[in-house]
Amino acid sequence: MARARRPRAPPVLQAMTNAPTPIGELPVLVLGPLRGRAAGEWERGPAGKWTPAQIVEHLALGLTLSAETFLARKNHAPMTRRARTPAEKIARLFIFGFRWFPPGRKAPERTTPPPHIDRAAAEAHFLAGVEAWDQVDRTLLPERRSNLFVKHPRMGDLTVEEWMRFHVIHARHHARQIRERIGL
User: Fold this and answer.
1) Which whole-number Å values give the CA distances from 32 to 81, 123, 182, in the listed order?
2) What residues make up the domain containing 171?
3) What is the number of alpha carbons within 13 Å of residue 150 lying toward its C-beta?
4) Residue 10 included in any domain
5) Deepest of 17, 57, 119, 152, by most Cβ within 10 A of its Cβ?
6) Into how many domains does the chain fold?
């Protein structure tokens, strides 16, 4: 007689689990397509859209701000997650479940890059943001895995690991845009 299988969650819900994410892959994912490219290619984009340098800076700002907030809270008393609003639940499903960012949404002001940024500044800032997350990982995990939160502007309170997952999904989204901008 065949053994009964335990029911599994649908794939979209499986994707929303808290599996560790490879934050260390971000430099290759984001900067890899830009290696060896002229500065002009970093600073050229379609009208009304960000350039590759601005995309890299946008990612850097998000990495840096979230890492700094977690590190500033490392000695904070244990926290509990606030209840998610319906909009936060939907955003979480889109981003963590479908890995999709609805078009037309503007980036939060604190992560909007300046109108002009050069390659060297964007690249250095991005690498510093990745390093900051390496420090968050070393400093806060596993001890603060489930009792330290930072609010995401669309998804509400997220843990360290959820933020790491977000940064990887977000970087993949923007890496596609970078490849399109440079013709890959």
Assistant:
1) 36, 11, 12
2) 20-181
3) 23
4) no
5) 57
6) 1
Q: What is the pLDDT of residue 104?
A: 85
Residue entry with tokens 């995990």:
141
Distance CA 79, CA 127 (A): 29
Going residue by residue through the chain, which has 184 residues, state the pLDDT in tens, using 9 for 90 and above.
Answer: 444 444 444 444 444 444 544 899 999 999 999 999 999 999 999 999 999 999 999 999 999 999 999 999 999 999 999 999 999 999 999 999 999 998 888 999 999 999 999 999 999 999 999 999 999 999 999 999 999 999 999 999 999 999 999 999 999 999 999 999 998 7
DSSP 94: I
Spatial neighbors of 146 by CB under 8 A, at least 6 apart, are: 159
> Domain containing 103 — which CATH number?
1.20.120.450
User: Is the residue at 143 inside a domain?
Assistant: yes
Provide the 3-class DSSP secondary structure of residue 157: strand
User: pTM of the predicted model, to two decimals?
Assistant: 0.87
Token pair of 70 as six digits: 């977690």
Structure tokens at 179: 């490849």
Radius of gyration of the chain (CA): 18
In a domain, 78, yes or no: yes
Q: Torsion-angle region of residue 183: left (phi > 0), alpha (psi -120 to 50) or beta?
A: left
Does 7 map to a domain? no
